[in-house]
Amino acid sequence: MSGSHDPDELLTIGEMSSRTGVAVSALRYYEELGLIASIRTSGNQRRYARHMLRRVSLISVAKRLGIPLADVQSAFTAVPLDRTPSHEDWQRASRRWKRQLEDRRHGIERLEHELTGCIGCGCLSMKACALLNPNDALATTGAGARRLDDIPEE
Fold first, then answer.
1. Are 100 and 106 a contacting pair, CB within 8 Å?
2. What's 75's domain CATH number?
3. Higher pLDDT, 58 or 11
4. pLDDT tens per residue across span 116-141
């Protein structure tokens, strides 16, 4: 972050943490990722311009929604660090995040439907059952839940 700032308008890392409710360690990490920026005093202490409050707030909203920081980074690439994110910046990011949340919600609904059906029948032995995996045959196809991603949408 460059430019001249009135020292009275700058926030210490502790003040930034207090104002945003974000841990000091998280602020340092966000800065390391390039999501926020600070200027340094002659004693190498961080000082944040007030417009960084908005950026940290947007990061916090994204985190609450389960949006990965890599996606926040991607959304912030078009937003220079020397200004407050605008309404348009927020709209662009929120449209993208909304699509991700909708995809996740659909996946959860499909999983819930499958689990309800499975629990309802109780057999766990149907050929179509997403939980059936005799002799751990699915281990050869990769790690993690393999069939749950393949549940057809209705």
1. no
2. 1.10.1660.10
3. 11
4. 766 555 555 555 565 566 667 777 77
